[in-house]
Amino acid sequence: MAGKFTELAIDCADPAALARFWCAVLDYEVLEEDEEEGVVSIGSPAVPEGKSRPGPVPPTLTFARVPEGKTVKNRLHIDINPTDREQADEVERLLALGARRADVGQGETRWTVLTDPEGNEFCVLATRCP
């Protein structure tokens, strides 16, 4: 049997602030927070009893405080797939939440590269159904 992708760990300076940003981006909620350890985990809201989740269970994101800052382009990043609005509208929503536009040499593409408040790159894809 193969392993399952259930969690993505993200090093950061301010786990609580970054967790709030990503909760707003993904419509997630805080699942666990340990202020002493500097760790916050967020995930998809619980499915009400008697209901089933459409599609696969989204991974949990865990933000962990580290002393060093980000210094180079991410080798791994999150792709956001807007399923209920156009790509341009989603980009504007994310910018209003605190994201910033990023130029990582992507040229003419169908996705838009943004950064979260701590500079981690992520992409907003052209609108498509999951």
Automatic annotation (TrEMBL):
Where's the VOC domain? 4-127
Which Pfam families is this protein grouped with?
Answer: Glyoxalase_6 (PF18029)
Q: Where is this region: Disordered?
A: 40-63
The record's Gene3D superfamilies line, in alphabetical order, gives: 2,3-Dihydroxybiphenyl 1,2-Dioxygenase, domain 1
InterPro entries this protein is in? Answer: Glyas_Bleomycin-R_OHBP_Dase (IPR029068), Glyoxalase_6 (IPR041581), VOC_core (IPR037523)
SUPFAM superfamilies listed in its UniProt record? Glyoxalase/Bleomycin resistance protein/Dihydroxybiphenyl dioxygenase
Q: What protein name does the entry list?
A: VOC family protein
What is the organism field in this record?
Answer: Streptomyces californicus
